[in-house]
Fold each of these.
Amino acid sequence: MNSKRNVLKMIAATSLVAVSGMALAQSGKPVRMLLPLAAGGSSDTIGRAVANEMSKTLGVTIVAENKPGASGTLALGEVIRTPVSNPTFGLVLGSTLAVVPHLMKVPYDSVKDIKPVVQLGITPFVLLVNKNHPAKNLAEFVAMSKRKPQTFGSYGAGTSSHVTGEAFNNAAGLKQVHVPYKGTAPAINDLLGSQVDSVVADFGVAGQHIGKDGKLRALAVTGPARSEGFPDVPTFGEQGYTSMNDLVGWIAFVTSAGTSDEQVATWAKAASNALRVPEVRQRLVSQGYVPAGTYGKDFDKIVADEPVRWGGLIKASNITLEN
């Protein structure tokens, strides 16, 4: 009896999503997607690729708009403020929800004012230097930094890229100077031009510059294991910094709290299905992401738990926006 009831519930839920998607298509209204970083970065291209597949599935136009700055809070703030009559969701870095509220005042409640839609992918962070940098490995980089403090770029003040760099400073006893950028792409561009000594980023934009013919050298990657996409890059833990094992980032879609559960379910299902499309999945993997597609209560729990974990790290490392 219980088994039959569960099957009926599943059928009802699937039908609800389908009807909601049809209603959205019939309304004729385009859906707006806000992107928090500059065009060309890994999260930007992933967001657009997923949205393109969602558009096909839902039969609606999804209009992408870049709104970089303020560690992702400008884009997220606009998503939250947009009336629900104008369907809108936004790409968000995990750090915008889990890290930024601990470091700066934001004009919204990053838990109560949003509804999680779907987690798209999980990514480790990588410490990068220019191929011309004299440090050939992490040990040499640490030794150089202790003799003369280096600069490290992140994709924004208060992002997990920033916190990861400061966590490494703390673990290695360094005093690297933080240089924030409005996205990974501009940070990488300055690293390619040797205007900054190193960059802490995800593998997205960096991936195309790493390898035998690349112009960047990856010294270490966070996470408990090496990246499937870049297996030659050793982890921080392998090189003596095990406290860096738990530091990984993620990207997701979220929307405003007033958006109906039916609409959220529609977007979540369409985005999760998009991640199964081989071309979209390969885009994530090739850029160092592990495709996720997590939504519903499982993703709600991640959004609730992550601020607590990163908040503890920020406090233990005494990180501020002035670092």
Amino acid sequence: MNNEYNIKLPTPHNKQKEILNAYFNSKVKNITINAGRRGGKSTIMSIIAIVEACNGKQIAYICPQYSQAKFFFNEILKLLPVNVAESNKSDLEISFITGGQIKFYSGNGDSLDGTIRGRNYDLVIVDESAFIANLQEKLDGPIGATLTDRDGRMLLISTPLGKNYWFEICQKNDGVLWSHFRYTTYDNPYIKREVIDRFRQQLSKAQFNQEYLAIAGENASAIVDSDVIERNTITVLSTLPTVVYGIDIATSPNGDYTSITGLDTNGHMTEHQHYKGFDSNLLEGIIKNLPSGIIKAIDKTGIGDGLFYRLQMVAQNVIGVHFDTSTKLNLITELRVALNTDKLKYNEITAKELSTYIATLNPKTHNISFNSISGCHDDTVVSLALANFYLEEGKAMHGSNGNPLAKYGW
């Protein structure tokens, strides 16, 4: 291929060769690669994209940001002689004389679904997959749909970002549908070991393991340690009566989730309902049908405001919580205390979201904000926080004998 088109491809190092051989000599549909910083991710992707395009294949190349997509568009273009391919800089497309094409996309924001919809690809490359917002929804939705007609393949590569959805799919390594590889910055012979060792001294062990050894670990800013999360995760929910519900309302009709979490008097999860999107009538009926004598703490911020006021007319014991900086700080602070003192037990879905829920300090305002890391959800964390915040009031209202009027002596 090099001689025929006079293309001088980068020379791969040994670990890159292992991955290239696996890609070109196997029929595995999906390949995931965890790679250390400066380990040579772009070399692998460039070689595969160019070779496949020279063979007439249609390739989508997805990066987290538009600026990254534009950068790699230019980097690949530099490797191609003018008689091999034509470029469209405004659309970030490289068209080959073979009929093959490489089209570059930004994976974040709301544009990917609209721009990639209706296209058909033989290969989708996703660069820095861990940093793609809502990665699971995009792989299952618009990205996956583009591979259907051509029975295409996916190549996903990234430096890890804690234990988010990228971490989950890297565990899929059956050798049939999925193959996984990992290589470190040390595997790149063009980076001096003493330079990498210097960073080992400067960074925390967790940071160095993640950035240079490509080992996913705890999120450095997580609100609670992984061992706390693990020891309080339960596989069977409590059968004791529910004394309080926390309800987080989806912020958008499609991409977000509504979560309803119930806790018993011990703080153990009794119930968890999860609904994608915001269907006002559906949610009103579900919440209305929850037991009347139990507190229902509901996030009434934004889209949930109208639902809350309607619920006040048809349901009992509904408490509306408007989220602002102060409110959220109080909720999450109380949640952290309860988690670290082992006062809450929750299901695996909640545990996964807790592991990717982080605190971020604004260096200018010195305010702390709480959110899930890019690409992950926080609805179950918020519903748990709401339920926990009103747990004591729920216990007092419910009474030791399960009578919601017990505190009044009735």
